[in-house]
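Weekly modeling sync, notes
Attendees: AB, CL, MP (scribe)

Item 1: holo prediction request
CL wants a bound-state model with N-hydroxy-L-asparagine before deciding which constructs to order. AB pointed out that an apo prediction alone won't tell us much about the pocket. Agreed to run with the ligand included and paste results into these notes for async review.

Input as submitted:
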Amino acid sequence: MQRRNFLKKTGLGSAGLISIPFLSSWSKPNSKIDPKTIKKPIRPVVVCTWNFHNATTKAWEVLSGGGNSLDAVEQGVMIEEANVNNQTVGKGGRPDRDGNVTLDACIMDKDGNCGSVVYLQNITHPVSVARKVMENTPHVILAGKGAEQFAYEKGFQKEDLLTEKSKQEWLEWKKESKYETIINIENHDTIGMLAIDENGDLSGACTTSGMAYKVGGRVGDSPIIGAGLFIDNEVGGATATGVGEEVIKTVGSFLIVELMRQGKSPQEACEEAVNRIIAKNKEKHKDFQIGFLAIDKNGETGAYCIHPGFSYSKYDSTGQSNNPSGAFVKE
Ligand code: SD4
């Protein structure tokens, strides 16, 4: 609504129609594009999973200052990695069943370069280690001790990530040691962020401490390129939150980007990805939360989830909003 008003005010709505170069790469050679359906791209723009306003605010600072989308998503998600009150990301994250906080993160740029760390311990900013993997090594993924050693070589400091709060909750959990996912509590708050800078280039990042009290060694979808995050600068990007096992099985973020390439809107693509998961888990899906968030090259966004409660934060030139695109909850 806010954006519509802005477009009206600035005359960028139906009047300022322009052609979009990327369309040429995925439209069929003989297909006719109605110029009336082509809107001026919204840029810069940033979106992230959940209500992480501080994270989108930081990313927006970078973008509105002329910064690129890669710096924006890295610096944006770092806010939550350092936020000890977020018990699903970075420092303060809930530990695995043995009391170890193990982090997963990845980052992907406009050229399809990507870096990822899995099962990383003692480092508050896994996304920045992932970026170093992308930029300073010929590899994509570093795991565990090797990733940690690499981080120290790159100057990252060793820190104890287990806060007193998370420790006490874990000790409480240990009394029963019963593992079950709890919708909207235990698997909540992973941050996946997607941004388009003023050049129209896309980047994304995703970072998490994963499922609370997971089996030691477990890695979720968040650091897996194509599952927790995927970016294609010609088409758009997608990211996921929730039960990572199900997202990995459907390669959810890649699926959404490919569906957008075939012409689906971000909203339709997210719905299709969620519905495929539901179709494979006719009863089981009632017990888990999964949310997808997507953006297309035009800056249009969409989101969908299995249970109510999923939200996302968005920042563009019209300002900041939460759940901006209306209903997206699958009951
Ligand atoms: C995982 N997808 O490790 C993550 C958890 C998550 O909000 O998204 N939490 O499976």
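Recorded for review: The two ends are 24 Å apart (CA to CA).
Action items: CL to compare against the apo run; MP to circulate these notes.
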